[in-house]
Model the fold of this input.
Amino acid sequence: MQEDFHYYATYCAAYIAGYSHEESLDICYSAQFVDMCSRTLLSKLRGPLNAATTQLQLEMMDARTDMIGLQDITRIWSSFHFLPQNLYAKLKHRNKRYMNKYRLICGPNGDLLVKTIELAKDKSLQHIGIAMHVLADTWAHMYFAGTPSLVINNTNDYFYEISDNDEERKIKFRHNPGTPDDLEKLLYTNSLHQGKENSIMNLGHGRAGHLPDYSFIKYKYLPAWGEYEEIIKDNPSDYRKAFCQMIYAMKYLKGEIDNFETDKYDFEAIAEWESRIDMILRKRQLFACDDWKAFGEELSGKSIEDFDLEKYQSEYIDASKEQKNITFLGKFFDGAILQKSMVTSEIFKSGNILAGFAKSISSEGGAI
Done:
């Protein structure tokens, strides 16, 4: 997903869930900051490097693809952007090396989603924002894995957009990062094909470009792992579920619901805005920021400031060592480390070493 959903739509979901305007801004800022918190930025801030929640393109160009390098990549992308749906999935006639990658395929409503939401309970608004980013991406990034893998993440020429009246149009891909996607010509930018299994070009949905991040699109394709069986991905429907699941999750985190359960969505909460939300989700556009922002401002009657990457940096830099953890970014870093530790530990406990090893960390920050 992009800023339109992680920032503005998350604000809307938080406000509908009962958070105040100010609280909703903190939650959505943190949700969007997950896509910004790289080691490059952390080095600038002199923050903890293990709090990185993303990797910049320049960082990826220098990333190692030996086992240690792959584990580092997988820890970040599986923890925050491609949360594995089933770490214990079974397939016949597959070796352990293949299954370790297959079990990292992202999808909604898995056990790790429950652990992610429960981990954010009674934590900071920043941690809630992190959890909302992870939840939302389980819907957008479904069927792709947060580890470099040609046999899992590759796609081929079989890619079609499906219209509302079930007409199919062929999607074309190119490798030209400097050119925006052309929605009229169905021309999308993707990562350069590399035949090496662990090439960084085969990370996540790189082979499908930004296409999975657009809420309006319904498409079908043949995933590399799918044995030539067609997958249909209905983003308007999936993004609606993501939005309503965020509302449900945040009501749980707010204390209005006793337990968080999978496959539950608060559709009732959006009943009066159903057509408005559906219109935003289905509108063909590269970015839906303006539409979600306008909707959010109508909900709260307050102005939603645009995302500003530098907003909290001075506060963190100028704080004393003892005070850094109570700054906005300090609380975000604590939440990020907890989330990464939990996911990495669960992957390791499943017998999968692709994310390496991390000690479990308690809510107070100590190793267990």
